[in-house]
Design goal:
Oligomer: single chain
Radius of gyration: 18 Å
Number of strands: 13
Distance between the termini: 39 Å
Number of domains: 1
CATH architecture: Alpha-Beta Barrel
Largest sheet: 9 strands, mixed
Strand content: 15-25%
Length: about 270
Amino acid sequence: MAGQLAADYPFFDHPGPVPMAHRGGAHYAPNIGMENSLTAFGNAVAAGYRYLETDVHASRDGGLFAFHDATLDRMTGADGQIRSLDAAVVRRARIGGREPIPYLRELFEAFPHARFNIDVKEDEAIQPLVSLIQDAAAHDRVCIASFSTARLRRLRSQLGPRVATSLGSTEVAAMRLSPVSGRQGAVVGHGGTCAQVPHRAGPIRVVTERFVVNAHRNGLPVHVWTVNDADEMRTLLGRGVDGIITDRLDVLRDVLTQRGQWYGASA
């Protein structure tokens, strides 16, 4: 995998900073109470977003759901962990009392021109995700993320170098702590093709000017999550970040429009 850069991946072909709709835009007014539903993702696409972010969880019998929470209660009022339930039971739950939790395959089919940033939160979701990407020939449409570097390495091994992945947490730490220098093969050689990070982790500012420069020297775009404040967006864009993941689709669209960097469709 060494030597693969973001420029080698169709996923990263956006002409400016990439706007990503977190959970479909969880705090975007039309989506309140309906995050991660087909309606929410549809509203994001209608607002001009081509990049959609979601977590995935697998049911006990291998159904792969596009949903943030490991449990059903917060968004549906139902009980239970997704990984402990059969898919048919998960499907009976209703987001906001209205819509079933979508399978990831449904999102691929409903939004054929969209790209998906997929956060894999549990090991149980690895094999269903690998199978879906292969069956749907979705290699060029996805970027895989996870806090777990070990989980990402398993995914990279099974999916091969065609699928873009973010750095894992230990890889981000290596990038954050390394000096600005030439390309560091120890970081890039793991196969990560972008750095997806929070602006801050507790008191530590992750996205410093040095971090962005170092990532770029390694050929890695920097995407920052989850940013909902307009001034923070402007600060990060001023540091040269390559993408912002947001709940507030309208705020990010306005900021990018003001900067002449909005390349989505008009709302």
